[in-house]
Structure formats: structure tokens, C-alpha cells
Write a structure and sequence with these properties.
Strand order of the largest sheet: 3-4-7
Bound molecules: iron/sulfur cluster
Number of domains: 2
Distance between the termini: 27 Å
Structural class: mainly alpha
Order of helices and strands: HEEHHHHHHHHHHHEEEHHEHHHHE
Number of helices: 18
Helix content: 40-55%
Strand content: under 5%
Radius of gyration: 21 Å
Shape: globular
Length: 398
Amino acid sequence: MNIKERIERSKQLILAISKIGRDKTTIPSLKDLFPFKHYFDNKGNLKRDELNEIDGLWTRREILTRYLLVSAVLDQGPDLEGVRRLLKDVVNSLYEKEIRIFHKPIDFFKELGISIDEILEKHASIKNIRADYWAKENESNPNKYNLFTDRTNQVLGYAVYRWGVPLCVPHLLEKDLKRNCKESTEPLVEYIESWDSSETMSQQIKDNERYGLGKAIGDKAGHLFAKFYIHTYRIGKRKDEAFGPLSYELPFDSNAGRVLFRTGFLLDCAKLSDYEKWEVVQKGKGKGGKHYIRVTNIRGKKSDELSSLKEVMDSYEPICIKYLKVRIRRPSKIEIQQIPNTLLLDTKYGIGDLDDGLINIGTKYCFNHNNPNCKECPIKEFCLAYKKQKGLIKNYRT
Ligand code: SF4
């Protein structure tokens, strides 16, 4: 296949995955979370027209945004269903005890002993329920089940770092407003919408000198937060292109990376030897001596081959300048992580649809071992590993 045929194949693949995301994904309802019960109707739909209603000192939009930030930070690890359950159970339990961490974040610290006890207790009960199932699915040992980020056993570090740091952002914003004799019912919302684009916002959520979460949040989680805010719950106020469906990069995690590698998308963007040079592919460093794919290392890497195609760069230019707002002039080379935005330009899909589709395929079919469920996989006709190169499954792990 020549380069033009490969880019067309990649576009069809990205559209097929996005369609699956659009058709198969339901918005996770938060109505089972105690603080948000009244934000949703009986069918579990968010009452969007009531987002400006005041709940305590803040709007509902603000309270939800605070929750989504914590949720994006925590939403990683080997068992996402377990992580989401942990978040829900701990939040409900704390609110039952009047520790209203999204309404008054400082209470998480004031009652740190209770916060920690709740995390420990809920983690133990989720482990009891899910460890065996998780171990079977992942060909692992149930004793290894651990939802604390970085798989540590130290609850204090996990609680303060992964829960506490994102809770401190609205707290600090509120303090700074007071110090400057200003008032707002949406300090976090105003802060995140003050950036040029949701891409810039997702970077600043991590890197800002005063309010950035630093290492408590990864690049993927920053983009996931943008996805939650713009695509999943659609609670943002800004409606311009820079806060629209193509305004942030795909949250690149191991799940997305595995599907994009096996299907051949990543190999359409650059050569295997490039990925080895960038340490995206680390030879022999995966489980059982397989080659390990570290997708986070793709960040900032450019595709020489695709950059030579005028039609690709013609689409990439507005993506950079109008949507992501990361450039003011036409770039000379395309970043691999921004190729999905470029291929989705002028289609009815956005990055959120694509990510939902990747989650669907990665968790239901494309398991991280030698036997993914290719026969049932809805994108098998597009998949390089399934059709031609079984080695992409057998020899690599994410
Ligand atoms: S066909 Fe198989 S290898 Fe390809 S994406 Fe589907 S499950 Fe993964």
C-alpha cells in the first residue's frame, strides 16, 4: 500500500471506531452518587437546563466539574470498573457523614482519618467482589488486585496525592478570589474556560505554576478531563471551536494504544524502527519477555511521512490554529497524537466518540494477552493483526 492508500485506510478505521463509540456508549449516570441525585432525572439524564442552579455556595456545573477533575485523576489502572466503584462508594459514604468534599474540599483534609478509613474499607470490599474476575480476564493473580494508583499499599499517599491534590484546586481558587475581594459561584469553571482551548486547558491543569496538579495528573488524565467536560457530560459554557469536539487530543492510554497498534494505525503513521527509537516500543521489556508498548512516549513525536502529504497538512493546519490553538502558523510537521483530530475534521464525529469506541473495543474484544476476541470484534476487517500480522498480538504487550 502506498502512503495515500494507508492514510485513507486509517481514516476509515478511525471513522469505524468513532461510530462504535457513538452507537454503543451510554453516558455513565451519576445519579447514584449522593451529591448529584437531584442533578439527574428519573431516566438518569443530566438536567442540563438546571446547571446554573445554586447548590450551597456553588452552581451545579461547578460541583460537577470538581467531581470530574477528581474522577479523571483516578480513572486509570488495571480495573476501571473497580476504580469507578471505589470513587462512588467513598463519595457516598463521606457525604452520608456530612463530609461534603466537592462542596467544601477542605473537609477531606479536616476529616482525613475518616477519608482514609473509607478508602481502605471500600477498597477491601471491592477487592473481595472483583479480584477473581479481574485475575481471570487478565491472566493474573487475584492477590495482585490493587486500585491505588502506582499499585502502592500506602493509603495516605494515595489519598492525599490523588484525591487531595485535585480537591485543592477549587479550594485555592476560592481562597485567591477572596484575597482579591472577588466573588464567583464557579471558580473552577471560570478558571478552566479562561484558557485558549480545551487542549491548552488540559495542559495547564497539569503544568500551571500555581494551580497545576503536576505529577498527580498525567497527560492522558488531563485529556480525559477535557473529554468528560466537553463530550461526556457536556457541561461547558463555551461553545466555540476551541472548546468543541476536536479541541483536545485523544486521551492516549495503554488501552487505546493497544488497539491503535494492533489495527495498524500507529504503523501507518511511523515506522516500527521509529517507535523503537522513541522507546514507544521497548524490546523484551513486557510481561513474559514480550515487547512493551509505552504509548505515553508518543507525545510530541512527528510523522515525517504524513507531513509530506499536502492534503494531510491542509487539514492539520486548522486543527492546530483554530481547534487545538497550539500554533499560530501552519506547522511543517504533523504530531502523531494529533492525527486523529486531523482525520476527523469535517466529519460528524469528535475525539470523544473515538475514545469511547477505543474503550469499547479495548475492554470487550482486544484484551492485553494472546487471545483477544478477534472473531467478534467489530473492526476486524480493518485490523492488520487479524488479517495479516498475528505477531502484532503475540509479540507485544501494553
Ligand atoms: S481484530 Fe483482534 S487484534 Fe484487531 S482490534 Fe479487534 S480484537 Fe484487537
